Input
Amino acid sequence: MDFKQNSNACWYEEVCSEYRQDCKQSCIRYGEMLYLVQSSGIPKARWYPASLDAGSDYDNFVELAKIKKDIQTQVNNGFNLYITSEGTGNGKTSWALKLLLKYFDTVWAGNGFRVRGLFIHVPTLLLQLKDFNNPISQDYKDSILNCDLIVWDEIGYSGLSNYDYTNLLMFLENRILNGKANIFTSNCNTKKKLEDVVGSKLASRVWETSKIIEFKGKDRR
Output
């Protein structure tokens, strides 16, 4: 199933037979889904999947739709996906979020207060790691290592210091070795371009363990 798009109400209002404007406070399904989304770090403006026109990326959209349909199995198998394009604004992050939200939809029942997935904007995370006056919590670091699925947005960040590199490599090596699923987005559309900005070791971890999907379409923003 797909979620209600561009809504300020409920993900399920179009498919729930008992939906009404005041039901969210008492709905277990809504509460569980809300916790998963809030704890993931997805920006509130992107809590609901965007509607995208496939255009020249039709075959890629079909492939991603297949992954989305079977997302729980994919995550359980520790899959890695690298969504790339040389251009910007053509749906990389939107598709990564579609997959993350669909995963939440498959695991919400009985989840409680377990963090199951994260959306991480890589440049922002690296800045936070260097902010020693306001350090990120150990709980958050543990979630990065242990949650089921992470979207690493803009993994091809070109401003890596040695400290950034060490931290990012540690997180990714731990996740890959422990079979945790990852979705990467980047404008680095070849392994060489990724190596040029993040180094050969980190690029190898990302590129060689991932299914590569490259968008060719125009800016959809």
